[in-house]
Amino acid sequence: MILDTNALSAYLDRVPDAVEIVSEARELAIPVIVAGEFAFGIAQSRHREMYERSLQRMLDRCTVLNIDVETARHYAAIRLELKSGGKPIPANDVWIAALSRQHAIPVMSRDSHFDFVAGLRRRTW
User: Fold this and answer.
1) Does the pLDDT of residue 107 top 90, yes or no?
2) I want to staple 1 with a disulfide (CB 3.0 to 4.6 A). Which of 25, 47, 63, 78 is the partner?
3) Which pTM value belongs to this model?
């Protein structure tokens, strides 16, 4: 399962339903985009050191999904589909969706706009 930024936050904040879903997952992945979004949030936090340690523990535990040329092709296709359907979503989430489709892995997120992406499965809590 791919963790979106809000899913990673919920898990690290020990939200019970999020912890249960993550704990049951056979495989966990964090897109490099999510790592960047989370690092940006950490940089602004009063609890920076604690969150940095938590993020590092998760990065050590999960597969980090990087972007490659195949991802870029999925990104372009998804953006075109969403634009044609009049349902644009934030650019970072298009990259996450592209990784989800590329690797055929569901995304754990509270963001319902992922539901506009054909072929993407979303899990929420």
Assistant:
1) yes
2) 25
3) 0.92
